[in-house]
Amino acid sequence: MIPAELTIDRSTAPPRLRYGERFNAASWYLDRHVVEGRGGKVAIEQAGTRVTYGELARRVGQTGNTLLGLGLAPGDRMLMVVKDCPEFFHFFWGAMKAGIVPVPVSYLVRAKDLAFIIADSECRAVVYSPEFATEVVPGLAAARTGARGLALEAEGGMLDEVDAAPAELEAAPARPDDIAFWLYSSGTTGRPKGVPHRHRDMPATCEHYAVGILGLGEEDRCYSAAKLFFAYGLGNAMTFPLWVGGTAILDERRPTPATTFETIETLRPTAYFGVPTLYAAQLQALDQADAADGGPARGGPAGQGSPDLGSLRLCVSAGEALPPDLFRRWKVATGLEILDGIGSTEALHIFISNAPGEVKPGSTGRVVPGYEARIVGEAGAEADPGEAGQLEIRGDSTTPGYWNRPELEGRTIVDGWLRTGDQYVRDAEGWFHYQGRADDMIKVGGIWCSPFDIEARLMEHPSVLEAAVVGREDDHGLVKPEAHVVLSEPLRETAGAPSAADALTAELVAHCQEDLPRYMYPRWIRFVAELPKTATGKIQRFRLRSSSLLR
Fold first, then answer.
1. Which residues contact 82 (CB under 8 A, 6 or more apart)?
2. How far apart (Å, rounded) are the C-alpha atoms in residues 53 and 31?
3. What is the rounded (10 degree) CA torsion for 379, 381, 384, 386?
4. What ranges in 315-401 are assigned the alpha helix state H?
5. 197-200: which pairs have CB atoms within 8 A and are 24 or more residues apart?
6. What is the CA radius of gyration of the chain?
7. Residue 285 burial (CB count, 10 A)
């Protein structure tokens, strides 16, 4: 018997999820599969490792018992600085099943920022992969909260304790609206914020998006280049496959074109989840492979030297808006559409998306059934089609509020509506078009200007790999667009010849002027080695604005 109460009525659109008084999500995501006969099926696959649903359920029980035995109690927070590996599943679900609140955080954070999160969350323990000790150990010391560090080591360490623990663990009593886990926002403009989520939030994202939009099923194998420590990756690589009884494919390495292509070729996922930056890098790698093979130039079909992506039926993108040229080039090169969408830590996953066979390049898509969305203008009224404003959303997976941030909560969550901070336009057919973050918009000559439109045009040029646009004051104190550009290949200066940088700058400006209104073309172009980003791959334009002020 599954100690969790949930019935799903798929006869309606969207499906209705009805919960009983008792619902610990860990039981539904794990114990259910054993009861339903999937105990021997592979739940997790990693290079050299396979974990069945039965093994996963046993290990989760052992881990939960170990945590309770160490003195953690129901309601306590437990930070997780853990790489993408089966142990992430064990400790996340083991804590939740025991009533302890897991809090995954980025393993890319430095000790100073980790100390802030440790203190802010008031956690009792920090579980971490040993390779992150150089940041975790000083972070624990700097926090001075008494939180315990639990390194995932064998040979007399934490994992040996788990091995010795009993596997039987009764799920802690929980209700659908009880807090199950936290995430921390990626912090594009400041320190991260604690975002609690309830037991019912994960099923909502899985049923409405993973099943309703992507059509994931038991036969699917999900591979996410985006890591488990934040909302997008947590859904892609853990809750989605576990919801449908599929297989999660993990790779603990930093995602690069080489590692992602290798994983796709060897482990044969059916669904691949990336971010625009990585898709751009992968396309560059495909171009280089084709050039080495004597194949077509950029934008042509992949040649003999290209990786085998034949197992994929779905490609998904989120984190940043997907430029339409990236969509076009990926489809030409691979034959696959990229399904762009938008989600947030506060909403847990994607709430507006393109769908298989229903894609409008350059658009974020339509509202995912099960959610509501509206665009609110500067005056506070809902905008008409074609009018820009701030996107607000509402749905069953949105956080009930921020941890210890009442002022921010009051500004961001109003009458159940979550103010995303993203500027959007909705067309007459219900497609949503991204304009940039509200604080990224640029007013040029009295006209609001979307940096995304300029970035998308720049990325259509074959020399541009990535671009980010911010506002900069000219000599008269007037704001104009400035572009920060990462090139596909380094500039090569020739002695005695005109500057290659000056020539390419003029070419890119002319390229923008051909397709954009006059006020939108960049007045300055700065070539950079890389763009500043959060741990989740979002461009930190506020840092680019700061550097512009210094010039």
1. 88, 91, 104, 107, 127, 128, 129, 152, 228, 229
2. 8
3. 40
4. 324-334
5. 197/348, 197/397, 197/399, 198/400, 199/23, 199/24, 199/25, 199/174, 199/175, 200/17, 200/19, 200/23, 200/25, 200/176, 200/396, 200/397
6. 24
7. 17
Range with the lowest mean pLDDT among 269-278, 295-304, 326-335, 432-441?
295-304
pLDDT in tens, 459-514: 999 999 999 999 988 876 778 899 999 998 888 876 666 688 999 999 999 999 99
Q: Which of 57, 67, 130 is nearest to 100 (CA)?
A: 67
- In angstroms, the CA 154 to CA 19 distance is 39
Sheet of 101-104, strand order: 101-104, 77-81, 125-128, 148-151
Q: Under DSSP, is residue 481 helix (H, G, I), strand (E, B) or coil?
A: strand
**Residue 112 and residue 304: Cα distance in Å, rounded?**
48
Residue showing tokens 């489809």: 331
Q: Which fold has domain 241-436?
A: Rossmann fold (3.40.50)
What is the CATH code for 52-199? 3.40.50.980
Q: Can you list the alpha helix ranges (DSSP code H) found in 271-323?
A: 276-292
Say yes or no: do domains 52-199 and 440-549 share a fold: no
Cβ atoms of 463 and 512 within 8 Å: the answer is: no
Boundaries of every domain in the chain: 52-199, 241-436, 440-549
Best CA proximity match to 370, nearest among 200, 147, 229, 541: 200
Q: Helix crossing, 53-69 with 86-97: angle to 10°?
A: 60
**Architecture label for domain 440-549:** 2-Layer Sandwich (3.30)
